[in-house]
Backbone:
């Protein structure tokens, strides 16, 4: 009843689609190349006899935690409710052989990791081959989506050949654990679902104005004074290690963001003297602003904190933030005004911001880390190292494409988030808008476009906590996942709808509270609800 | 808790769930009782519940005119909750449970207080849609709990619609056999009774809606020759439109069907729908066109719709049930019964519609500004809270005819995975608007209390 007329007409076709049985064995995100032999056969998969095994000659075999854990994890995902049915009249597919050509199992995935894989399923034989363990993980996920179940309860898989690799190497999801604390289980569950979607970067926006839940060993007062609750709403060192390892086993990089100099109110209580005291005329008003960029103590603090952060988080990159710095407090502070005059910055506070950021970038670089920054840092003409990654987030009537062009024309690598702010909910099937985004739809040379390394779906936390995170994230996040993994030519919305509906039902079957795309139902809907 | 007394020996007619709500989630439950002598503060030993009416209504169902007023006095050693009927006692218990709080040491405290409370509007509802998506029983029951925490007293169960027919009918089992999404996604008679009783124990009426003649695609799967066959150039197209108003068999079916509904659902009211009837299929059908001519309706299909609706109203009336209808039924000038309740849902100029409906002497229920399925970014609860239902041109007498409102959560994009966080605490804003006094409008104060209330609901679900 409720849908406005226009909306109803536009989804009428989708209504019909929603009532048809979905394409079984369709993979989300769609692989680069997938084919089945004509008259395509299927191979029964006997649940009780099935096993994963390292193929002969594989550089990676048993003892590799990444693969061992994956095999353990995928078995129940494949065979949720095994029955005794075992057909004897067809050659069954009892084994998935996994072949990895490059050794290496105990490291961390990186921007350069190869995630390609090939999957070959024919009568009685199945082979997954990949260059690295990370590719094997991607292939395992695909494999898990191909196994279906017929009316008799028998598991089967269609004969198929898949050659797959991601279009973009950086496919991320941002979670905000400062606006609302997210319990560990919420983060770990999100990592699981990210793996189902082939996301490979967890951008942990861990602290911000409202709270500082990160327990720092160098500065324990930061969370003691800055967390919502220093006992219950913090991430201990062991929590952080747990997240990093859980992510690693799923081929997901963890990029921590300690956003400065703005978005730092919660840092103040635990680090007196760090933030700028704002002034009302000649008197401090009692309110604080961004980090104070004029004191040496600031840079000593920042060096020590980032020293710790660099050790704790193994990824090469750190996200340094640098967004939305409000200059009014700086402008009100007499010491800062004096500093501005001394340095000849005049009234241009962007120069002061740049002064801070440049020193921060140097510090982080000297710690052997690469930097990702929000777009303001680029927009405000900060002197950047050539390998700095610019994160484009401002969305205003497609202006972000211009920004992508500017950033890449200046030679920097770019990440796109602007059209993918999943926290900005609205009525209806907004996944379609996210899906239709084309990151390379701007004027530029091929070399420029090659500088776009991917993007991130963002789930800012102002209105999100564990009570609504999962349904708000999924399956909408899946639209971004496919846009970042699949070929640019995969854009048909009706086809995507049918596959995403099916994928959402798969998520539900795996115990994920992914919300519906539109009217309808899933078979086996109420296992966990 | 305490003894309930109400006239000649009555057993406690509400269960002890409030004990669990108040003390159940104590952080210090394992510590056991602290010796209070050390604190030297007066203790509250008992909450006495007194129901004053000779017939408290314990074994009956709540209705539109039930008394929900209560008087709560909290002093040591015994607090007293007085209400005319048991429904008021339920509201008072909810209030009492919200007054008790825990200090940092695990002691339960309550401030001495005196509360005189009653609802501003008698009809305070939540609409759930179990056709666009099936909602498992657990979901519905959890929602009834949340409604009780917010003093809502009507569950408007939009149980069937185009997409699916989950209601298992006793007389017409094929309706759900063929019309439900699947055989396990149905509400059996036992399920329905469970919902009704669970609601009753919380002072919540269950008003079912069987929406016709539009919104009935799923009915046609299990009931042949009910829906209108659509035509194109003299040939049936194979698709169907609204219920066919020209066949006698339609009314035979509806009479039997609504007889069942009238006996299954104890509330005095049944919602008959009547919204968004698309005339194009009727216009294409030769029999319908013929009928229009015979009846002298010309080309005014609204007259045909009213003809149909009036027949249904008569049928349902004959079973001694009152009717609720969506506003189109009134707008298209069907002849309503004097006590028909008109639900105003179209957002455009709803104040004007309220004037028209009440100006014509009909009772109205407001939903237009409270379509909670229309999500948007930010604190939209504020706009729901800021609605003033009586802000429409009309006399005092007219305004009395607005008996309340309903927050609607249509199910196109809602199922058990996201229902609770989407509905609550946004619906709480509507809950206060319908219960509390018209001068309770301060948003900052409401924000403080609502954040608190939200945390409380979190621990109770």
Residues:
């Amino acid at each position: 009843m409720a849908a406005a007329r226009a909306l109803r007409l536009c989804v009428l076709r989708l209504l019909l689609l929603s009532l048809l049985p979905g394409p079984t064995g369709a993979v989300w995100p769609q692989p680069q190349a997938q084919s089945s032999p004509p008259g395509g056969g299927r191979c029964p998969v006997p649940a009780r006899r099935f096993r994963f095994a390292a193929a002969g000659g594989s550089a990676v075999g048993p003892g590799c935690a990444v693969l061992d854990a994956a095999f353990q994890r995928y078995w129940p995902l494949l065979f949720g409710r095994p029955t005794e049915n075992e057909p004897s009249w067809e050659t069954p597919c009892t084994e998935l052989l996994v072949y990895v050509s490059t050794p290496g199992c105990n490291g961390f995935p990186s921007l350069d990791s190869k995630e390609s894989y090939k999957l070959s399923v024919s009568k009685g034989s199945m082979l997954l081959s990949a260059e690295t363990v990370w590719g094997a993980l991607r292939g395992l996920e695909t494999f898990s989506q191909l196994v279906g179940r017929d009316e008799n309860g028998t598991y089967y898989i269609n004969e198929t050949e898949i050659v797959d690799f991601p279009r973009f190497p950086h496919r991320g999801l941002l979670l905000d654990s400062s606006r609302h604390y997210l319990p560990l289980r919420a983060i770990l569950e999100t990592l699981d679902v990210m793996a189902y979607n082939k996301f490979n970067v967890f951008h942990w926006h861990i602290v911000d104005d409202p709270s500082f839940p990160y327990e720092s060993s160098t500065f324990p007062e930061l969370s003691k004074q800055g967390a919502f609750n220093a006992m219950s709403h913090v991430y201990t060192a062991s929590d952080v290690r747990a997240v990093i390892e859980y992510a690693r086993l799923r081929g997901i990089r963890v990029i921590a963001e300690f956003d400065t100099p703005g978005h730092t109110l919660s840092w103040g209580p635990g680090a007196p003297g760090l933030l700028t005291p704002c002034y009302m005329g000649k008197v401090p008003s009692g309110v604080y602003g961004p980090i104070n960029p004029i004191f040496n103590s600031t840079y000593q603090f920042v060096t020590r904190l980032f020293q710790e952060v660099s050790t704790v988080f193994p990824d090469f990159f750190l996200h340094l933030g640098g967004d939305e710095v409000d200059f009014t407090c700086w402008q009100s502070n007499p010491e800062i005004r004096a500093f501005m005059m001394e340095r000849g910055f005049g009234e241009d506070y962007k120069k002061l911001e740049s002064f801070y950021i440049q020193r921060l970038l140097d510090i982080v670089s000297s710690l052997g880390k690469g930097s990702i920054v929000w777009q303001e840092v680029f927009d405000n003409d900060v002197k950047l190292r050539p390998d700095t990654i610019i994160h484009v987030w401002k969305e205003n009537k497609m202006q972000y494409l211009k920004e992508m062009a500017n950033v890449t024309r200046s030679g920097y690598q770019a990440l796109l988030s602007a059209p993918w702010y999943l926290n900005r909910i609205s009525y209806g099937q907004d996944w379609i808008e996210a899906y239709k985004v084309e990151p390379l739809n701007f004027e530029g040379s091929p070399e420029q476009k090659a500088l776009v390394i991917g993007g991130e779906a963002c789930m800012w936390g102002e209105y999100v906590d564990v009570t609504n995170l999962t349904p708000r994230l999924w399956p909408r996040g899946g639209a971004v996942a496919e846009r970042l993994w699949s070929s640019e030519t995969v854009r048909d919305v009706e086809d995507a709808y049918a596959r995403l509906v099916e994928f959402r039902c798969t998520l539900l079957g795996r115990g994920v509270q992914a919300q519906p795309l539109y009217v309808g139902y899933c078979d086996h809907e109420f296992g966990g609800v | 808790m305490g003894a309930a007394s109400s006239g000649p020996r009555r057993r406690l007619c509400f269960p002890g769930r409030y004990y669990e709500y108040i003390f159940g989630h104590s952080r210090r439950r394992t510590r056991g009782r602290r010796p209070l002598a050390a604190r030297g503060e007066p203790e509250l030993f008992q909450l006495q519940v007194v129901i004053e009416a000779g017939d408290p209504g314990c074994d009956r169902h709540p209705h539109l005119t039930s008394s929900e007023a209560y008087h709560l006095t909290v002093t040591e050693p015994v607090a007293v909750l007085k209400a005319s009927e048991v429904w008021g006692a339920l509201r008072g218990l909810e209030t009492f449970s919200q007054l008790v709080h825990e200090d940092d040491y695990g002691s339960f405290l309550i401030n001495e207080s005196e509360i005189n409370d009653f609802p501003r509007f008698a009809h305070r509802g939540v609409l759930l849609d179990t056709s666009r998506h099936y909602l498992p029983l657990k979901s519905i029951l959890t929602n009834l709990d949340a409604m009780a925490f917010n003093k809502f007293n009507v569950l408007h169960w939009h149980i069937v619609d185009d997409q699916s027919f989950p209601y298992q009918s006793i007389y017409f089992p094929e309706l759900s056999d063929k019309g439900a999404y699947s055989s396990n996604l149905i509400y059996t008679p036992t399920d329905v009774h469970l919902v009704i009783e669970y609601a009753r124990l919380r002072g919540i009426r269950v008003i079912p809606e069987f929406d016709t003649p539009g919104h009935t695609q799923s009915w046609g799967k299990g009931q042949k020759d009910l829906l209108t066959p659509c035509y194109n150039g003299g040939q049936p197209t194979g698709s169907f439109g609204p219920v066919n108003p020209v066949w006698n068999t339609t009314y035979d079916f509806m009479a039997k069907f609504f007889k069942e509904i009238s006996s299954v659902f104890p509330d005095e009211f049944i919602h008959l729908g009547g919204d968004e009837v698309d005339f194009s299929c009727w216009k294409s059908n030769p029999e319908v066109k013929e009928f229009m001519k015979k009846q002298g309706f010309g080309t005014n299909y609204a007259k045909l719709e009213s003809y149909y609706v009036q027949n249904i109203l008569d049928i349902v009336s004959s079973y001694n049930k009152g009717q609720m209808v969506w506003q189109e039924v009134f707008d298209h000038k069907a002849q309503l019964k004097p006590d028909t309740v008109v639900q105003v849902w179209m957002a455009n100029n709803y104040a004007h519609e309220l004037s028209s409906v009440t100006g014509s002497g009909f009772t109205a229920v407001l939903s237009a500004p409270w379509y909670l399925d229309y999500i948007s970014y930010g604190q939209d609860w504020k706009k729901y809270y800021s609605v003033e239902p009586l802000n429409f041109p009309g006399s005092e007498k007219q305004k009395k005819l607005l008996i309340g409102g309903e927050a609607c959560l249509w199910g196109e994009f809602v199922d058990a995975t996201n229902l609770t966080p989407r509905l609550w605490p946004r619906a709480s804003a509507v809950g206060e608007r319908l219960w509390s006094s018209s001068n309770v409008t301060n948003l900052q104060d409401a924000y403080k209390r609502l954040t608190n209330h939200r945390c409380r609901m979190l621990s109770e679900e």
